[in-house]
Amino acid sequence: MTQALRSLSITKSEQAFRDASKAFESLNLSSGLTLKQIVSAVEEIRGRRIRIKATDRLLDTAICGLWVPGRRQEWVFHPPTPWELQRQQFILHELAHMVLGHDANSAARVLLIEGLQSLSPELVRRALMRTEFRTVEEATAEYLADLMAEALRGTPTEPGAFEEVFG
């Protein structure tokens, strides 16, 4: 990798982290935080109810989360998992996209969602499910999800470090 390319990658990564940190600070989350409180904070920002559902349709895929924005409510779908920390990360990543307003960047996505009923399941899957984490948008969402997860781990009601869970 050339120095110019390496420099560009670092700059994008640093920008993604800065944007995520700024978004996290704007949430003004209190101490003693729970996942439910984060969901409520995002619902307030978005002005819509957020529904979260595990679905077997995401099992055995590279997809760990799907956010479907809507006018009245938003949906977050994730594959079932026996591990609460993994479930939280799936959800937090999609909530991060909401906080960052990533749906506002794509008018086509909104039109696609409104016409979902008439589209093939494969087209919907390809259009809405993110499996690529090399984009700045995905990196920013993952950084923000990590910051929210760290805030959750700092509370007595949520599982934290490996040692706290497994002794």
Can you describe this structure?
The protein is mainly α and 167 residues long. It is 55% helix and 9% strand. The chain is globular, with a radius of gyration of 17 Å. It starts with a helix and ends with a helix. Mean pLDDT is 78; it is low at 107-112.
Helix-strand layout with pairing:
Elements: H1 3-27, H2 35-46, E1 49-54, E2 66-68, E3 73-78, H3 84-99, H4 107-114, H5 121-128, H6 136-153, H7 162-166
Parallel strand pairs: 1-3
Antiparallel strand pairs: 2-3
Helix pairs in contact: 1-6, 2-3, 3-6
Oligomeric state of the chains in view: single chain
Strand order of the largest sheet: 1-3-2
Taken in chain order, the helices and strands follow as: HHEEEHHHHH
Radius of gyration: 17 Å
> Termini distance?
43 Å
Report mean pLDDT, rounded to a whole number: 78
Structural class: mainly alpha
Strand content: 5-15%
Question: pLDDT under 50 segments (min length 5)?
Answer: 107-112
Short description:
The protein has 167 residues and is mostly helical. The protein has helices spanning 3-27, 35-46, 84-99, 107-114, 121-128, 136-153, 162-166; strands at 49-54, 66-68, 73-78.
Could you name the key traits of this structure?
167 residues; mainly alpha; 3 strands
